[in-house]
Amino acid sequence: MVSKEAVQEKEERIRRLVRELPDEKRLRYFREVERKIKDPDTYATLNFIFFAGLHHFYLGKWLYGIINMAVFWVGVAMLFTDHVGLGVLVLIGVSVLELCELFRSQVIVQKYNNQVMERVYNSVSRA
Predict the structure, then answer these.
(1) How far is CA 80 from the centre of its chain?
(2) How far is it between the farthest Cα atoms of the chain?
(3) What is the separation of C-alpha 76 from the centre of its chain, rounded to a whole number of angstroms?
(4) At 112, which helix (H) or strand (E)?
(5) CA dist 71 → 53, 54, 68, 79, 114 (Å)
(6) DSSP-derived 3-state class of residue 52
């Protein structure tokens, strides 16, 4: 797990690099970044309302989203079989993981946005 401080330091490092870009490249950078960054509140809302992994899709993490949804629905299906106890444990496990992500949503999205900003910076600075 990445610390909040490390994520903030990386963001500040990227911002310093962007400030050094020529005006034309800096404008291009900000236009691209504005289109690609994600909102932490939207991520948190998707996590809170739809506990089944939609927040992963929001960040483009399709594999995590599919796995999260599959495990969630397997747990729900187990509630209607002879394995009710196991189904409850699966749903509790998913819920605990989702709550951890909900409480860390700001850092998770900030880390994602840092990756986006770094990719855009690299493409703009090379051009």
Answers:
(1) 32
(2) 66
(3) 25
(4) helix 105-126
(5) 10, 13, 5, 13, 29
(6) coil
DSSP-assigned states of every residue in 57-75:
HHTT-HHHHHHHHHHHHHH
pTM > 0.90: yes or no = no
Closest CA to 68 of 85, 86, 84, 46: 46
Would you state the pLDDT for residue 1? 75
CA angle 69, 70, 72 (to 5 degrees): 65
pLDDT digits (tens, 9 = 90+) for 67-102: 999 999 999 999 999 999 999 999 999 989 889 889
The answer to whether 17 and 121 are in contact (CB under 8 A) is yes
For residue 82, what is the DSSP state? S
| Exposure letters 2-41 (e unless 16+ CB within 10 A, then b) | eeeeebeebbeebeeebeebeeebeebbeebbeeebbebe
Query: What does each C-alpha distance from 18 to 32, 107, 123 come to in angstroms?
Result: 13, 21, 12
